[in-house]
Amino acid sequence: MSTTTTDPVVAASHGHLPQVTEPRNPGLPLDMNWVRSVQANTSAIERRAGTIGTRRSVKKAHQAAWLLRAITCIDLTTLSGDDTARRVQRLCAKAKQPVAPAILDALGMAPITTGAVCVYHDMIPAAVEALQGTDIPIAAVSTGFPAGLSPFELRLREIEMSVEAGATEIDIVISRRHVLMGNWQALYDEMAAMRAACGDAHVKAILATGELGTLRNVARASLVCMMAGADFIKTSTGKESVNATLPVSLVMIRAIRDFYDRTGLRVGYKPAGGISKAKDAVTYLALMKEELGDRWTRPDLFRFGASSLLTDIERQLEHYVTGSYSAAYRHAVG
Ligand SMILES: O=C[C@H](O)COP(=O)(O)O
After folding, report:
1. Which of 32, 112, 192, 255 could potentially form a cystine with 222 if both were Cys, beta carbons 3.0 to 4.6 Å apart?
2. 8-16+30-330: which CATH architecture?
3. Which residues line ligand 1 (CB under 6 A)?
4. Backbone angles phi, psi at 279, to 5 degrees
């Protein structure tokens, strides 16, 4: 990204800031007093969540800047039973060049990439080949995604195989039953074992919040996964009937804030599933900024898990530059 320009888009997109990478969360012993003390006031959370998209109006250059920032935070995802190497190649081409050069030129921006690509284990080799020569990370959903109900030893082995195949980020799914039965020790042990299996690869803990019953369970599961060393906590697989929502996000983000306040450790956040509109991306970024500060709006601490969000962002950027919208079919993947 440019280091000299004072163009408002580049400046507001923080394109001039140096890249930094957060040290990993090493985890800490399970603290059941802390876990039991966590509550969630559902009506207060829903009230606050209801105002997030309404209070801030981001327009023109600032909107373009936020959208560019959002692109750098997308885990560009394909997670379908009919995925093929060809589809993953197209996905990776899009990750390398998510915005047409003419649009970037008009905005005064140097090339950007998405935060990562996110694929099933079997698609890792295709992604490795397609992303050669880039530093775009490959995230793999391992551990029997999306239900996470295959034998535990197989789930750990799947992580190891994904890392061996070239994934540097592993999105694991937790056992929802541990949360629903209040078995926090089992959740902690599972998460700690999965983190260990990841080795140097970063681990994102998918909570599948739509299946956890209550916001208090979401808050406690977030905390336990962070205690067990999660680098990121992630809402959903995208396959539950309810995926990322603002109330759930608020709960998870506040758990991250509480964890940081008490330990000084920064854990990342990844809302995923059903986020497909540019406007929603800006709302999420605003939420991160308001609740956690600017530091959590960079790709090492914030990602969107999304398969189609990029399409809408591209269309909005094109509209900002040219005054007209392109058809969605012109942005085939993303
Ligand atoms: O983790 C990513 C999600 O599976 C993507 O969900 P989506 O297809 O609703 O954007």
Report:
1. 255
2. Alpha-Beta Barrel (3.20)
3. 77, 79, 118, 237-238, 272-274, 305-308
4. -55, -40
Catalytic residue chosen out of the listed positions 204, 231, 270, 300: 270
> Tell me: the pLDDT tens digits for 217-234?
999 999 999 999 999 999
Does the annotation mark 171 as catalytic? yes
pLDDT in tens, 144-199: 999 999 999 999 999 999 999 999 999 999 999 999 999 999 999 999 999 999 99
Q: Which residues of the chain have pLDDT under 50?
A: 1-6, 12, 15-18
Instruction: Choose, from 75, 94, 204, 234, the residue flagged as catalytic.
Output: 234
Distance 119 CA to ligand 1 centre (A): 10
pLDDT at residue 4, rounded to an integer: 39
Active site residue 96: no
CA end-to-end span of the chain, whole Å?
Answer: 22
The reply to whether 82 belongs to the active site is no
